[in-house]
Amino acid sequence: MFSSQAGKAVDDALELLEKSREKYNFTLSIKETGMITSVSTGIVKVSGLPGVGFEELLKFPNGLFGIAYNLDAEEIGVILLGEDSLLNVGDQVERTGRVTDIPVGDALIGRVINPLGEAVDGKGEIAFSDRMPIERPSPAIMDRRAVSVPLQTGIKVIDALIPIGRGQRELILGDRQTGKTAITIDAILNQRDKNVICIYCAIGQRASSVAKVRANLAEKGAMDYTVMVVTEGNNAPGLKYICPYAATSIAEYFMEKGRDVLIVYDDLTNHARAYRELSLLLRRPPGREAFPGDIFYIHSKLLERSTRLDEKLGGGSLTALPIIETEAQNISAYIPTNLISITDGQIYLSPKLFELGILPAVDVGKSVSRVGGAAQLRTYRSIANLKLEYAQFEELETFSRFGTRMDDNTKKIIEHGKRIRICLKQQELKPMSVPEQFIVLLTLTAGLLDTVPEDKMQEAQNALIESVNKIPDDTLKRLFSEEKLSDEDRQAILDVAEDAIKTFRHQPNETKTKG
């Protein structure tokens, strides 16, 4: 009885207000507000707001925003996108009626922003053309195409042995300080003049590391086609959590316009830790290694957005290079195994190889591309036995350390393997073009470098690279085509190579004299 009377009173009051609005011509607006009941590190509890939706954006005083995440009967758990020190218990909270979004547009290219779309590079405000939600559904299976176009990284060991295609998700993992970020920066540098937009997403990185990456990209002219979305280690965990989603929405904006996009997540270990912190503060039940049970889901919904779209949707692609940090080479830990199962292959960096100076420190045996030769230039298939030869060498090298007497064939395999290892080394920030890679690798597989002394190998490689302009133009064009490389083309390249390295090779009689 009481409730019906109260409802009638509210209706009468609203009717009176409506008549007054028509008479005096004023605007009537109703806001749903709540109140902060507690403030924790990165987390705010709010009472009120009965109509709030999951992941709705809430507005706090001092220009702060938060995401409604726990919708309990008595209160709402909110992930704060900013400093909690600016809020107090009792402050008012307003609904916005929309989910978290980020400004997008061509004006972002060359800029450094945070996950809220605010410029942090000191170059002033950015003129945005549109806004997109940071969390969007991944493309349907029928809207995707097979991964068949290569994405050249400019790194010999990856392009030849662990190829990456446009639309693929290739995980990069290894212990700290093994060169994970260096590989992704080289991949970004190699996209120059290839009509690929690059997004570098730094999640909870040190400010000095972000500044170094930006300086390297700017020095090489890569910022002309790159967007940096960054959060630093001292930022709120909520910002670290939304950072990769915001970066992916920016990438999707370009992909849906028919562009090819490369996105680097550096790194998802920090993302998982930020989400664990938020989940524990929200009193969500912990699981393995104290991570919440839905940690697999938050990474899969992120990486499933990387794909190659069908022609009817513009034919754009989004290639993802997520980075994960392992501890003591343990790739069977919880987060690494999760991401290995989500992605289309992994590049494992070994600290042992790093200590030996074999850079990039890619462990060929533990690295794999599940797309494989389908996303590789056909010319590379003529050197497909390189991986097998290298595996044989590593196996035999282990036995040779015991001082066992070896036959001539075994010695030949080991000497050849040593040259492979040297040739797969590459300097940082110096990606190589397809012709430069191919002349080195073809010369290597043909055995022409086996008679070059190890201390002369780098000079021989440089001579091969400089001789690329002597290769006939028709042959160079066929390196990029789907045509099979003819025997005449191979011989033409080998003739150029032999002429380039002849001054570095041992002559047979010279070798015998030294023996």
TrEMBL record:
Residues 154-369 form the ATPase F1/V1/A1 complex alpha/beta subunit nucleotide-binding domain. Residues 376-499 form the ATP synthase alpha subunit C-terminal domain. CDD domains: ATP-synt_F1_alpha_C, F1-ATPase_alpha_CD. It is an enzyme of class 7 (translocase). It is found in: Cell membrane; Membrane. ATP binds at residues 174-181. One of its GO terms (molecular function) is ADP binding. PROSITE patterns: ATPASE_ALPHA_BETA (PS00152). Keywords: ATP synthesis, ATP-binding, Cell membrane, CF(1), Hydrogen ion transport, Ion transport, Membrane, Nucleotide-binding, Translocase, Transport. The record marks 367 as: Required for activity. Produces ATP from ADP in the presence of a proton gradient across the membrane. The alpha chain is a regulatory subunit. This is ATP synthase subunit alpha. It comes from Dyadobacter psychrotolerans. The lineage of its organism: Bacteria, Pseudomonadati, Bacteroidota, Cytophagia, Cytophagales.
